[in-house]
């Protein structure tokens, strides 16, 4: 779109072009699971056995409830019911509420949320962790 001499403004589309799904073993959900960058189309097209969900900032809405709901909606449109494991990097109120409120749908869609009960200690820090075997 032209706005006069020397000033041009290009229109950007946020739609993902149509195409076949990609199958991966492990996917890190981009941008701390922020809904501005990940939606239902992401999960319809990027199909994985394991998704890592990062984010522990409720003020920044990370992880986003909309992203977690998009996983459910996107996976519901897959033509197979393959097992999917969701791996949160942090314990958050959003994750706990989503897990409890959608647990039945998760089971129907063959989605398992991996909880952690292990603690790793490195130097002066300790944090929750989980073991993943692929």
UniProtKB/TrEMBL annotation:
InterPro entries documented for this protein: MAP1
Any one GO MF annotation of this record: actin binding
Highest taxon above the source species: Eukaryota
GO BP, sorted A to Z: axonogenesis; dendrite development; microtubule cytoskeleton organization; regulation of microtubule depolymerization
GO terms under cellular component: cytosol; dendrite; microtubule; microtubule associated complex; neuronal cell body; synapse
This protein's name: MAP1B protein
């Amino acid at each position: 779109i032209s706005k006069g001499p020397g000033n041009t403004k290009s229109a950007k589309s946020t739609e993902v072009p149509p195409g076949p799904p990609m199958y991966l073993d492990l996917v890190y959900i981009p941008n701390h699971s922020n809904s501005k960058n990940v939606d239902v189309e992401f999960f319809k097209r990027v199909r994985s056995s394991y998704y890592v969900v990062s984010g522990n900032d409720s003020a920044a809405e990370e992880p986003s409830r909309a992203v977690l709901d998009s996983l459910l909606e996107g996976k519901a449109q897959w033509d197979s019911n393959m097992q999917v494991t969701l791996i949160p990097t942090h314990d958050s109120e959003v994750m706990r509420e989503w897990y409890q409120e959608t647990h039945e749908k998760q089971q129907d869609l063959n989605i398992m949320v991996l909880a952690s009960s292990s603690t790793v200690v490195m130097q002066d820090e300790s944090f929750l962790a989980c073991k993943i075997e692929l």
